[in-house]
Design goal:
Elements: E1 2-9, E2 12-14, E3 19-22, E4 26-28, E5 33-35, E6 66-70, H1 71-81, E7 94-97, E8 109-112, E9 116-123, H2 128-134, H3 139-146, E10 151-157, E11 159-161, E12 167-171, H4 179-186, H5 193-196, H6 204-213
Parallel strand pairs: 6-7
Antiparallel strand pairs: 1-4, 1-7, 2-3, 5-11, 6-10, 8-9, 8-12, 9-10
């Protein structure tokens, strides 16, 4: 298990949400990248130095500090797209290899390289920017049905990460709530929502949403 690519966003116009810019255009970078906890949502800060988000209401902050997507899942989408999908094209900061990102447990911790420890916090929910960027009509529905969302992570121990860094799972919590299950519950299968609350590491705003949407 390793980091295949570390990707940083280049600001570009965002006509899909009517915003001035988006950071979804992520490109691989050479050399070490500093990873730190960005603080609360609302400032545009994320975990990787040199990157940021521009839709500050919905993205960024401590619970969405780093976004990881598996190279194996990108490869799976290539046939549907009919073209190569480069590392970073889904807006991910880390393109991984050999790591079951969607099967990771909420609260699972990964050591990346010698210093950095990240904790899986929640799944990525697709938005209009994602669909517009990929130029795929109906992409939000297609991505949602596939339930291969990739994972947002929070920073537990800061440090530098590099392309090729090994990834080690150093903690797995005692529940069965995976990234894929949480995504399905939050999107197409709300009947699964009550199961999610055993995952203490879910973001507080997610827990509040689950409680509002769960009868009783």
């Amino acid at each position: 298990m390793k980091v295949l690519s570390v990707n940083i966003g280049r600001p570009r116009p965002n006509p899909w949400k009517g915003l001035e810019a988006t950071g979804i255009d992520k490109r691989p970078v050479a050399g070490p990248v500093a990873v730190t906890a960005p603080g609360p949502k609302g400032t545009g800060a994320v975990g990787l130095a040199g990157d940021r988000v521009h839709d500050v209401k919905h993205h960024g902050g401590a619970d969405q500090a780093v976004y990881a997507y598996a190279r194996e899942d990108l490869d799976g989408w290539q046939g549907e797209f009919g073209r190569p999908l480069t590392d970073g094209v889904f807006g991910e900061n880390l393109t991984t290899l050999g790591l079951d990102v969607n099967g990771a447990l909420i609260g699972e911790r990964w050591r990346i390289g010698p210093d950095v420890v990240l904790e899986v916090s929640c799944a990525r929910i697709p938005c209009a920017t994602f669909q517009g960027w990929l130029e795929r009509d109906g992409w939000i529905k297609r991505f949602t049905r596939a339930a291969r969302p990739g994972a947002y992570l929070r920073v537990i121990e800061p440090g530098d990460i590099r392309t090729g860094d090994p990834v080690e799972i150093v903690h797995r919590p005692a529940h069965d709530i995976t990234v894929a299950l949480e995504f399905r519950a939050m999107t197409l299968h709300p009947e699964l929502l009550p199961r999610l609350l055993v995952a203490d590491a879910l973001p507080e705003e997610s827990k509040e949403l689950i409680r509002r949407r769960t009868p009783g």
